[in-house]
Amino acid sequence: MLKESFNQYSFILDKTAKRVKQFAQNSFSAQGIDLTVDQWSVLKTLYEFPLLTHKELADKCGKDQPTLTRMVDLLLKKGYMKRVEHPSDRRCLHLQLTDLGGSKVQALAPLVKDFRMRAWENLSQEDFEHFTRILNTIYNNLETK
Amino acid sequence: MLKESFNQYSFILDKTAKRVKQFAQNSFSAQGIDLTVDQWSVLKTLYEFPLLTHKELADKCGKDQPTLTRMVDLLLKKGYMKRVEHPSDRRCLHLQLTDLGGSKVQALAPLVKDFRMRAWENLSQEDFEHFTRILNTIYNNLETK
DNA sequence: TAACAATTATTAGTATAACAAGTAAATCTA
DNA sequence: TAGATTTACTTGTTATACTAATAATTGTTA
């Protein structure tokens, strides 16, 4: 049914994801922001879900646990988040943004809004819906379980 | 116009690109294939464009030159490609697949076809066209020059 | 209850790729 | 011819992914 090869989508997908990340990273660097895009995504996720365990945050960010642990170590060193005891399960640690972390996320909001505007020029709300639907479908199709 | 934040697309984009890559990588590993997905994309590109310089190949693959040089070193060590003198410009080197490299790409074709089928379940040819159009638009919108 | 299994976070080691800065050779240009 | 540009390479650093193993805790079941 589909004539084109894997290339014709995986290359485009990969190239575009990489360019978005690079563009964001360059904007961060140009503003002197001491975060990688991935680190920002961790902070942002925690901003939206203020109290998560390592495992929950890792899942939401699509990272494995060792990777997240190292990222948290870094963000902790930078003072943007903290680890807190879990009230009922002593294996777990709850993660929280510090005030500094929260205001960092807020400070980045306008910058991030600029990416969006720039990236979505010449595209419509309908395109956005296609985009999310198609990408989510691919994502779910490749569930490994 | 667009209500959602950067997250609502960059997260999905990044997550999906990562999952596609992981899925491909797992399939490669399960078949005992000694290539990363990025290495495969280099070989595949060179398969389609049989005679490229470092710079041309780097551009086509979206890699910078130092990264490509190291990847070529690796692929050369594995015997999949070779460097050849450029006939008219002695600064350049032409890159070519070896016979081994060519048959490797061919051997991977059915596997790669499986990814495509799996990823695109429940999606139409029309979706594919939306997909490529939208991603290419974003890609071009973020051109840094 | 005791033994075993599963879960959570961590640690360590390795590999890949991105990025930055600089070098050398060749080519182009003014 | 002198200087600028291009091409490829080298080196060093960093971020992230993956694997495997460990310790502590919790859950399960015989």
Automatic annotation (TrEMBL), chains A, B:
Keyword entries, A-Z: DNA-binding, Transcription, Transcription regulation
Domain HTH marR-type: 6-140
GO molecular function terms listed in the Swiss-Prot or TrEMBL record: DNA binding; DNA-binding transcription factor activity
Keyword field contains Transcription: yes
The protein's name in its UniProt record: MarR family transcriptional regulator
Coiled-coil regions listed in the entry: none
Organism, scientific name: Sphingobacterium humi
A Pfam family matched in the record: MarR
Listed InterPro entries: HTH_MarR-typ, WH-like_DNA-bd_sf, WH_DNA-bd_sf
